[in-house]
Amino acid sequence: MAVISLLKSAGLRTDAGVLAVLAAALLWATIGIWSVSLFEAGITPLDVAFWRATIAAVTLAGWAAVRRPDLFRLDGARDLALLTGYAGVAVVLFYPALLLAIEGTSVAVASVLLYTAPIFVALGARAWLGERIGPRRGTSLVVVVCGVWATALGAVGAEVEVTLVGVVWGVIAGMAYASYYLFGRRFVPRIGAARTLLWSILLGTPLLGLVLVAAGRPPTLDVPVQAWPALAALAIPSTVLANGVYYWGIRRTEANRAAVVACVEPVMAALLALWIFDQRLVWLGWIGVALVAGGVAYGSIRQREPRR
Predict the structure, then answer these.
(1) CA–CA separation, 208 and 201 (whole Å)
(2) Of 38, 78, 136, 171, whose CB neighbour count within 10 A is largest?
(3) Mean pLDDT value of segment 110-115
(4) pLDDT tens, 277-287?
(5) Residue 229 to residues 38, 48, 235, Cα–Cα distance (Å)
(6) Cα-only R_g, the chain
(7) C-beta of residue 131 within 8 angstroms of C-beta of residue 283
(8) Which of 251, 14, 257, 296 lies closest to 134, judged by CA?
(9) pLDDT tens digits for range 193-210
């Protein structure tokens, strides 16, 4: 509240949508940490992706059955088709791509590759939503992207093998991640945040399972007992709660603006990895953190219109 008051006193304005997107980004920042711990337990990225989606689907379906049974209803075949297509990108493609990028690079590098998303969002929002990027948003986007890359380059101290396959999966994850912003901005206000989240997970989970079976990589049922807490943490706070807060926020702010604000996620992910994995951040990394923080602040506030 003090931050909001300070912005208002400076003639600037922020909103609940921005704060919700920021909260979602902080929850998403823990995905890499949980994923690495699961990889170390011997679970493959594809299995992690499947169980993340499955636990999230069961959690959401149980909550909706008790609290919001109306969410199981859709307004016709058009919404079902839209949500099925969205689930194919946001769950079937995005979940494995992100985890394969983490495995093939590192938490910090995969997070940076993921945040090529604001570039795709800016282009998509202009073409699909008619949102003008503008000087302030464009400047903040450039500053934030530069800061994200500097943060990753400054994250050293552990031997990390970066593979070309991992980099490709990271860029694919970034493209798929952009769909969260674009679909959310265009269709969530009509379909509803909770209904979008529920149906995307319910449709995406079996589709993901079918794709893995078709690819000759059926999900394993032999999950070590000690891995279930990390899977639950990945599925519930880092997926269900984060996405729910995000969809609520995207209804209340522009897609471009949300994409810039969410860029705090890779910085937080890198810092968590540095702390937990006992790595260090060199001066370039700290410059990157400052650039992201400044760019997000600049891009997420609106200049108050002068009174006439």
Answers:
(1) 10
(2) 38
(3) 74
(4) 665 556 776 67
(5) 10, 12, 10
(6) 19
(7) no
(8) 257
(9) 899 999 999 999 999 999
